[in-house]
Amino acid sequence: MQRFVTSSGFCILLLVFSGCQTNVEQSNPGVGDTDTKVAVISLTSDPLTDPQSVNMGLIFAGFCLDEGYEVAIFFNVKGVTLPITSFDAAYKYQGHAPMIQQLQTLKSRGAELHVCPVCMKDLEITSDDIIEAAFVTDKSKLFGKLGGDTMVFSY
Questions:
Q1: By CB neighbour count within 10 A (0-12 exposed, 13-18 middle, 19+ buried), where does 144 fall?
Q2: Structural domain boundaries of the chain?
Q3: pLDDT tens-digit profile of 105-124?
Q4: End-to-end alpha carbon distance in the chain
Q5: Which residue has the higher pLDDT, 27 or 47?
Q6: How many other C-beta atoms are found inside a 10 Å radius of the C-beta of residue 64?
């Protein structure tokens, strides 16, 4: 696992290359309170073919919450297949809690669960397919989490 402390510019590039946005401009750089620590967890892995990566991303999101970070989990690429109603609610990695349960717990602790609309469309997932704890994101919602000192972790 690598930890990246990034600038807003790097975060924008990450989002562009992840497929969420193809024409990107940041309307309000450095958004937010300067005392607020923000972590964006980018889940790009398929939970069924790479459950260890996805599980680690979820666990790490919990660690960030423990440390007082605001957390936004960005489900993109194949990661959009996790926060959907048809995902097996009992599916888990080894002895960890089921992934859907982990999402619900993270949400109840304050994490935001952003789902990429472009990636959803590519995989024929509709907004009706998204679990109640998550939401289809947009540029302003996601970019509102990004600032000059936002940490981004990818799994």
A1: middle
A2: 4-154
A3: 999 999 999 999 999 999 99
A4: 8
A5: 47
A6: 23
| Amino acid present at 40 | V
Question: How many whole angstroms separate alpha carbon 63 and alpha carbon 111?
Answer: 11
Question: 4-154 sits in which CATH class?
Answer: alpha beta
pLDDT of residue 34: 59
- Cα–Cα distance measured from residue 62 to residue 69, given in angstroms and rounded to the nearest whole number: 10
> Kind of pairing, strands 112-115 and 151-154?
unpaired
**Residues 29-58: what's their mean pLDDT?**
87
pTM for this one? 0.79
The span from the CA of 18 to the CA of 74, in Å, is 10
